[in-house]
Amino acid sequence: MTDEIDQLLIGALMEDSRKSLKALAALSGLSSPSVAERIRKLEEREVIKGYTVEVDPKAFGYQLQAIIRIRPLPGQLQEVERQIQNIPQFTECDKVTGEDCFIARLCVRSIEQLDTLLDNLNAYAETNTAIIKKSPVKRRLPPMA
User: How would you label 31-57 residue by residue, b for 16+ Cβ within 10 Å and e otherwise?
Assistant: First the structure.
């Protein structure tokens, strides 16, 4: 379980994972060593699983992002999963319940690249594509309390 100070520290690190111990200490009212110990314990309990950098795919020429709903053809579930894992333009994928087995996020440089990638996948599955226009809610934590 986490307390209010843990939640404050986690929220601050979600905003900026490079925030210094000194800044986290000032924010929480604890000493830097106390903050370091709390963070170490959160990491040990795998509440905090890692630190990351957010990169804009457009900086690498990926002008479009799409959400792809994927329904494997009969007997092709494992092959579809393997195909998704082997296509590096798939940046996220969840196996879900319902008619579609996978919902994935794909970054592409052009509509032509999207067509090529999906044509290769369509040998194993039916797909339904939605181009992302805007992301009004970025990835975030659910309420911690």
Answer: eeeebeebbeebeeeeebeeeeeeeee
**Third-level CATH fold of 57-131:** Alpha-Beta Plaits (3.30.70)
H or E stretch including 104?
strand 102-108
- What pLDDT sits at residue 145? 74
The CATH topology of domain 4-44 is Arc Repressor Mutant, subunit A (1.10.10)
Q: Tokens for 106, please give them.
A: 């794909």
| Cα–Cα dist 40/107, whole Å | 35
Do 106 and 89 meet the contact criterion of CB atoms below 8 Å apart? yes
Please say whether the beta carbons of 86 and 48 come within 8 A: no
Q: Looking at the DSSP assignment, which residues form a beta bridge with residue 108?
A: 64
Tokens of 77: 């579930």
For 6, the token pair is 């843990």
Give the relative orientation of helices 21-28 and 4-15 as an angle to the nearest 10 degrees: 140
Whether the predicted pLDDT of 142 surpasses 90: no
